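Hypothesis: this fold can be encoded by more than one sequence.
Test: take the structure tokens below, design a sequence, compare later.
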């Protein structure tokens, strides 16, 4: 049985903590993080937040090493990631958020370095991107690990669940860990397709009528990342 709650049935706290570590292993295996990069958190049933620790290689993370915080950010135990303020900003602005995944997907980040003027990932050429995530805005650069990064997210919350962080990485929040992880995986896949498209001659957008139909369908599907 999955530890990632695809059915939205209640899961035990132990299963949630195991799932946080599983997500970290998947991120590393897919090349979406390296060494101690990235961080994952989950909001527990009693409102506490479980978070990956600072400076620990995520591929070998165990539940016993996770840090715990109260809902207001007060430290309960452990040494949480330096990106703590970013996670707290999401939980405070998005009542539906039960998990946050922050990773460093290489191709997606490269878009923000090569094209610093972009305000969002080009999204008018791929129907899957529109239906799965809608728009993917690019959050202006803020120094990692600072309060400024958490503040930079606020204009995009709670409307957007999947965000690119300029020159830094990506994050996705979801109603469960599977949604939050899936958004990061989806983002890197789309970023690779768009890069290949440019290499082959350039991005050709879909017709306006089709774009409008796809966006309307996305609206009916709801806000979840798919």
């Amino acid at each position: 049985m999955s530890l990632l709650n695809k059915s939205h049935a209640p899961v035990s706290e132990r299963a949630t903590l195991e799932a946080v570590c599983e997500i970290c292993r998947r991120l590393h295996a897919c090349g979406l993080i390296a060494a101690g990069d990235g961080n994952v958190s989950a909001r527990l049933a009693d409102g506490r937040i479980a978070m990956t620790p600072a400076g620990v290689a995520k591929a070998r993370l165990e539940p016993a090493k996770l840090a715990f915080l109260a809902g207001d950010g007060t430290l309960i135990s452990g040494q949480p990631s330096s990106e703590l303020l970013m996670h707290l900003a999401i939980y405070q602005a998005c009542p539906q958020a039960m998990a946050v995944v922050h990773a460093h997907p290489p191709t997606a980040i490269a878009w923000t370095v090569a094209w610093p003027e972009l305000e969002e990932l080009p999204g008018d050429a791929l129907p899957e991107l529109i239906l799965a995530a809608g728009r993917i805005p690019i959050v202006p650069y803020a120094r990692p690990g600072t309060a400024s990064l958490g503040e930079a997210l606020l204009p995009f919350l709670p409307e957007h669940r999947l965000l690119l962080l300029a020159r830094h990485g990506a994050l996705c929040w979801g109603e469960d860990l599977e949604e939050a992880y899936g958004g990061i995986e989806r983002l890197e896949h789309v970023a690779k397709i768009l890069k290949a498209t440019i290499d082959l001659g350039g991005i050709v957008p879909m017709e306006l009528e089709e774009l409008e139909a796809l966006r309307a369908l996305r609206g009916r599907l709801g806000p979840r990342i798919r």
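The first helix runs from residue 13 to 29. Confidence is low (pLDDT under 50) at residues 1-9.
Hypothesis status: open.
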